[in-house]
Amino acid sequence: MSDLYTRFIANLVFPLQERVKKHDTVRVRRQMEESQWWSAERIAALQLERLKAFLTDIGANVPYYRELFASTGFDPRAVKSTADLQALPFLTKAVIKDNTDALRADDAKGLARFNTGGSSGVPLIFFIGTERVTHDVAAKWRATRWWDVDIGDPEVVVWGSPIELGTQDRMRLIRDKLMRTELLPAFEMSDERVEAFIARIRDMRPKMVFGYPSAISHIAGYAEKKGLRLDDLGVKVVFVTSERLYDHQREVISRVFACPVANGYGGRDAGFIAHACPSGSMHITAEDIVVEIIDGAGNVLPHGQSGEIVVTHLATRDYPFVRYRTGDVGVLSDHACPCGRGLPVLSEIQGRSTDFVIAADGTVMHGLALIYVLRDIPGVASFKIVQETTLLTTVFVEPGKLFKAEDVTRIEDGLKRRLGDAVTIDVKLVDVVPAEASGKFRYVISRVAA
Ligand SMILES: [Zn+2]
Fold this sequence. Notes:
There is one protein chain. By secondary structure, the protein is an alpha/beta fold. The chain contains 13 helices and 20 strands. It has a seven-stranded mixed beta sheet with strand order 4-3-6-7-8-9-10, sandwiched between helices. Helix 13 (407-419) links the parallel strand 18 (392-399) and strand 19 (424-429). Helix 2 packs across helix 6 and helix 3 (40-61) packs across helix 4 (63-72). The longest helix has 22 residues, at 40-61. It is globular. The structure holds zinc ion (ZN).
């Protein structure tokens, strides 16, 4: 049962805000709430129809694809199955970097610029148009409502980066207040901070908690250890995203908050790819997103086999994401979910991982706190941070064209500010940043046990 305030926010304030932003989010969400109950076949037919229209559109209006289709003889109007996508090249971060402007539609609407490290640690600049924002917000909104909560319900968000927090303007703060969302910065997890978080959560009695699984499970574990209760607040669901969710994290969060944990998978770059339903399946946003699983050589793998997740986002005509390589590893399932939704299921997502690091004084902080130091430096093409001990951290840096000698000092100073002055920061300039033995790239690795 949503209370009056929630209904007011969900039905009036949020739609109004979206309308002001020219986002037809409510309409799209309603359509998606209908199509989620369609049969798998009917959803696949809708997806194919949308794929064909999308490819035809970008073939006419996006310079990069216009030239590609012309030079390869690809005819989007002849597309008969999603397998026809295999005639097209993958979109990688390198391709986006080399074609930043040619990927814009001639008639693109409301493009907003984004800058992300993605999961590889390679900075990526790309654009998101109005249609795509509408669809990603609608997909997230739909998945939120699967859990008997709604936008406007009191929510604690365990999130934030120094940068995001620094640029938060007044409007954003007012919006958060109105939406009853409170942000707890997840970067510095000292005991005092965690205790303050727990006190704030107790005070606020949120209906939902949203954030990194590593951060929320850390808070839950601390509460349990100290005998601080979080199970009597009426929290209905804990949404986690951005990292791999480990079983032990799910268990401690669920036990301490006395509610289910719902995993979401996606990103600014790849879109809102999949979200858990109450029956435990990760449902793909199939109306908008075609998922392919590929092997190391780029061949598409059948259902049940593990490989890299590649997405084509059908609401990205202003700045297309076609066969975008996420760098994440997953498995597509054939199983029909008992919840009755016909949306296809991603049975496993592996290989997303952002570890905590531990400062010299014992402060536990999110690995992203270090990542933002590196991401801020334009001369850094790629990097990997390895915390060897609490007193030694190695940083592998692949210098880009804009790299300056003083950037090394900048990295040392930035990391020391977070980890402690006594810590040795060993910056190693390398031609290529080494990947893990698994082949998966991780940008922060801590060898110090939390
Ligand atoms: Zn389901």
